[in-house]
Amino acid sequence: MNSKRDLPISTKRLTLRAFRKSDLDAMMAYHALPDVQRYLDWKARDRAEVQTALDAMIKQNRLTRPGDTFHLAVVKTSDDSLIGQISLRWTDATAGQAELRFIFNPAERKQGFATEAVKAAVDHGFEAFHFHRIFARCSGKNEPSARLLKGIGMRLEAHYREHALFQGEWDEELHFAILDREWKPSEVVREFPRKSGTQIARHLVA
Ligand SMILES: CC(C)(COP(=O)(O)OP(=O)(O)OC[C@H]1O[C@@H](n2cnc3c(N)ncnc32)[C@H](O)[C@@H]1OP(=O)(O)O)[C@@H](O)C(=O)NCCC(=O)NCCS
């Protein structure tokens, strides 16, 4: 269940699939941009670094233990072009917690693609992985990301003011989250049957 066998996920305009070696050029098109790097706490600027990141992401397609990350390549179904990536990191087994992260090519923004893809990934997190709570962190200055997370129904649970220094300036961090029972499955992906609490725990430790 916790593997790329569940993929691809289809939405109205997009396909979410596992990463492939051939994704390198499309990843380079957005990873190396300062506008993308600005809000990320990891750096992959040149081809060798992006290649290393891609190789790791290809292998990270299962959630077998807490700390594992599941990566999704987001592709426009109309022309099969890679426009971004989403990940779910399993952070806590007994409490069924996972962290959502995403990056999209700036050339493809403001068309609702990121929102559509992130909704499908959250659906997958709750329906296929049976997480209890999915959370996301973003910079207080990252308005597009905060708008997206709020827009899909995630709750702003914390705003850390000047909690750290980042590149010589005070950093603000927003924490968003949503519980499985609060999430309304997206209409753009197929529905899965809901599981009970005990089934969730059993599934996560299986
Ligand atoms: C965060 C990020 C994914 C948001 O991208 P985005 O382009 O704003 O998101 P979408 O593609 O879903 O577009 C939504 C916008 O398009 C508009 N839009 C246009 N056509 C639309 C359509 N058909 N359907 C839905 N929305 C549409 C929406 O109104 C919305 O505008 P608004 O933000 O002014 O309210 C992007 O800025 C990014 O990749 N940033 C760098 C990495 C990053 O910050 N990652 C997050 C770390 S947590």
Protein described:
It is built from 6 helices and 8 strands, in the order ββαααβββαβαββα. The protein has 206 residues and is an alpha+beta fold. The chain has a single domain, classed as Aminopeptidase (3-Layer(aba) Sandwich). It has an 8-stranded mixed β-sheet, sandwiched between helices. α1 packs across α3. The protein is globular and about 40 Å long. 30% of the residues are buried.
What's the short story on this structure?
The chain has 206 residues and is α+β, with helices and mostly antiparallel strands. It contains six helices and eight strands, in the order ββαααβββαβαββα.
Topology:
Layout: E1 9-10, E2 14-17, H1 24-31, H2 34-37, H3 47-59, E3 69-76, E4 81-92, E5 97-104, H4 113-127, E6 133-139, H5 143-151, E7 155-166, E8 169-179, H6 197-205
Parallel strand pairs: 5-6
Antiparallel strand pairs: 1-2, 2-3, 3-4, 4-5, 6-8, 7-8
Helix pairs in contact: 1-3
Coenzyme A binds at residues 36, 39, 101-104, 109-115, 136, 138, 142, 144-145, 147-148.
Mean of residue pLDDT values: 87
Query: Which ligands appear in the coordinates?
Result: coenzyme A
How does the helix and strand content classify structurally? alpha+beta
Using the CA coordinates, give the radius of gyration.
17 Å
- Total tally of structural domains: 1
Biggest pleated sheet: 8 strands, mixed
Strand content: 25-35%
Low-pLDDT residue intervals, each spanning 5 or more residues: 190-206
Q: Helical percent range?
A: 25-40%
What is the CATH C level class, in words?
Alpha Beta
- Assign an overall shape: globular
Order of strands in the sheet with most strands: 1-2-3-4-5-6-8-7
- Topology, number of strands: 8
CATH architecture: 3-Layer(aba) Sandwich
Order of helices and strands: EEHHHEEEHEHEEH
